[in-house]
Amino acid sequence: MNGSTAFSAAPRHAASTTPVLEVEDLSVRFTRRGEAGTQAVDGVSFSVAPGETIGLVGESGCGKSVTSLAVMGLLPKRGVQVAGSVRLDGQELLGAGDRALRKLRGADMAMVFQDPLSSLNPTVTIGVQVTEVLKEHRGMSGKEATEEAADLLDRVGIPDPRRRLGEYPHQLSGGMRQRALIAMALACSPRLLIADEPTTALDVTIQAQILELLRELVQGSGTALVMITHDLGVVAGLCDRVHVMYAGRIIETADRGDLFARPRHPYTGGLLASVPRLDTTRGTPLTPIRGSARDAIPWAQGCAFAPRCDSGRDDCLTEVAGSTVPLESDGAGRELRCRHPLTVPPVAGSPTTPGADR
Amino acid sequence: MTAALGSTRRDKIDELAARAGQVPAGGGGVSLARSAFRRLRRDPVAIIGAVIVVAFLLVAALAPWLAPRDPLEQALLSEVRQGSIPGSREGFPLGVDQLGRDVLSRLIYGSRQSLLIGVVSTVLGAVAGMALGVLAGAFGGWVDTVVMRFVDILLSIPGLLMAISISVLLGQNQYALMIAIAVTQVPVFARLLRGSMLSQRDSDYALAAKALGVKRSRIVLGHVLPNSLSPVIVQATLSLATAIIEAAALSFLGLGDPDISRPEWGAMLSSAQAVLSFAPMLAVYPALCIIVVALGFTLLGESLREALDPKFRR
Q1: What is the distance between the alpha carbons of residues A191 and B285, in angstroms, rounded to a whole number?
Q2: Looking at residues A8-33, what average pLDDT do you find?
Q3: How far apart are CA B108 and CA B102, in angstroms?
Q4: What is the pLDDT of residue B312?
Q5: Any bridge partners for residue A41, and if so which?
């Protein structure tokens, strides 16, 4: 791991500079006429410094993607209420005009999506799609833009970039498509890059290449990277700081090493324990987290994870509405939303250890 | 037959080469249109349709050279009497009509009129319909509602009835005929394009383009529209058939082009009606032409739909 020294240095470096992105108390509520609204994201706060990589981790439906779309201002206007504050280099994005947002998107903040095939327009060549961004934000002419596009594709490791510019998305492999999308996202050296599960649709070797590429690009340019993923392997390889989300709220925040060594929230512990390992004997059952995430989010009565939690006690769920378990400081650089946190790191292959209050 | 075999083999070789990672020289990008064309070439139904359509186009283009006689010239044949019209005879392969004009030449020249009306009215209808569809699909909201209700009103009036009313309103000439048929085509195109744009508007690439700060107009025209076009292209092919049939129907009803110097299949059918009892072939020939040409466009359109449908894609 030659990158590890650079990583441990990054957060310290980050602390001295102002953050690129500050998200404060972000809430997203989907409302539908005649139905009760759904609180997809509730009171999420985090910040990212230049050159820093943070991870938003959680299972499907926990609000990671909605958070990123809210930051980019890409949520539909109708039926969605967004509250809180999102600042990019100090500039408030929530409530900013369409024009202003459009100028920022692609230039100062960019996003890489999950499925590279469906994120590319199948009827247009790669070249047209890459140059589009350059013409839009950097005011390049056709010829300049083509040159620059070839350079960009080259930078993200696409061989024979000139030929690729004339090809259509279906002619590229999955890894190359994602590289092309990353090239488009990085075309204007944005201050902030949000990657929404960029490796989910790719196989593991390509996954590793794409992650390596992202790491290099971010380290080289000081771009702040928000990595949205449910894959703890991705977090371990890339993120400086990790925010674990559950049911629309952040439940645990820690530096990467700290989180993996000493998970405090039973959910984090469960996630770590459920990662399949190669060194166990064959036939050892995986260790899942009981149940599944719910749509109706019962944060109001305490802790949404309590029904699935092995360390759950009576006081995790209360009858009183509004008594949500608060997100509190939990030692240096850590935050935790749990009344009965883990104290002993769980061992993979064994059930999550209820070690609270011992 | 051999040509078809040869091209199939060439496709196979292309395919193998592409699979091996070496695109043949000069291959460059294979657009969806080109790969659709490739699939089309392998479809026998498409080939039949294409042969009919191409033959029709050639006949229309080369009418002055193909027709054995002047379609307007009246041969004064003693055999053509009240109550009897002879069939095929020397110099008149398909016989003459009740005015002594050569039927084959009239059929050949009639193809021009059918083609002209079919193409012009379909293009007019498609352009107008697509404009409405883009408007509704791109803006949504109240624009969508207004446009679509307007289209619904158009759609609720039976096509032929509307075409008749319009051609009566605009006077009897061939341009009125084209406009009348075009108007009946508008709602289909508008609905089709709107629907397919709505489904493409929420696609990932539209969101990705938005995330890159691409202008809305550019997203709609550069990304969403090209992806929404394939059903419209198919519909245009099918509409050509309908337009030809409708033009013939209007001519048959006496609302067609009043200029007798332009033979027209529908008008031929209409005038053959008077002599149907003793010269049925005079009605059969133009009817066959209309059926075959409409069938050709329909077959081509249907196989185009299959070729462009992503579900049929490898």
Answers
A1: 73
A2: 73
A3: 10
A4: 53
A5: A28
For residue A355, pLDDT beyond 70: no
**Which positions in chain A touch B203 (Cβ < 8 Å)?**
118
Give the closest of A110, A121, A132 to B211, CB-based.
A110
Q: Find out whether A31 and A203 touch, Cβ atoms under 8 Å.
A: no
Q: Which pLDDT score, from 0 to 100, does residue A63 have?
A: 86
Residue B23 has pLDDT above 70, yes or no: no
pLDDT at A33: 79
Q: Is B150 exposed, middle or buried (0-12, 13-18, 19+ CB in 10 A)?
A: middle
Taking the mean position of all CA atoms in its chain, how far away is CA A254?
15
Predicted local distance difference test score (pLDDT) of residue B296: 92
Write the pLDDT tens digit of every residue in A25-70: 999 998 887 777 888 898 899 999 998 999 999 888 788 889 999 9
Question: How far, in Å, CA of A102 to CA of A99, rounded?
Answer: 5
For residue B126, CA distances in Å to B166, B169, B296 come to: 18, 22, 20
Residue where the block lists tokens 């790719």: A202
Q: What is the pTM of this model?
A: 0.75
**Which tens digits make up the pLDDT trace of B136-190?**
988 878 899 999 999 999 889 888 888 888 888 888 788 888 898 999 999 999 9
Give the pair of three-digit tokens for residue B39. 């699939």
DSSP sequence for A118-172: TTS-TTS-HHHHHHHHHHHHH---HHHHHHHHHHHHHHTT-SSHHHHHTS-GGGS
Separation between Cα atoms, residue B217 and residue A334, nearest integer Å: 46
Q: In which band, very low, low, confident or very high, does the pLDDT at A297 lie, cut at 50, 70 and 90?
A: low
Which of B29, B211, B227 is nearest residue A121 as measured by Cβ atoms? B227
Does the beta carbon of A104 lie under 8 angstroms from any beta carbon of chain B? yes
**Best residue of B212, B217, B233 to probe chain A, by most A CBs closer than 10 Å:** B212
- C-alpha angle B49-B51-B54 in degrees, rounded to nearest 5: 105
Cα A301 versus chain centre, distance: 27
CA distances from B266 to A9, B55, B107, B285 (A): 84, 20, 10, 11
- Among the partner-chain residues A111, A121, A132, the one whose CB lies closest to the CB of B211 is A111
- Unique residue bearing structure tokens 């204007």: A188
By three-state DSSP, how is residue B227 classified? helix
Is some CB atom of chain B closer than 8 A to the CB atom of A97? Answer: no
Would the ipTM clear 0.85, i.e. be above it?
A: no
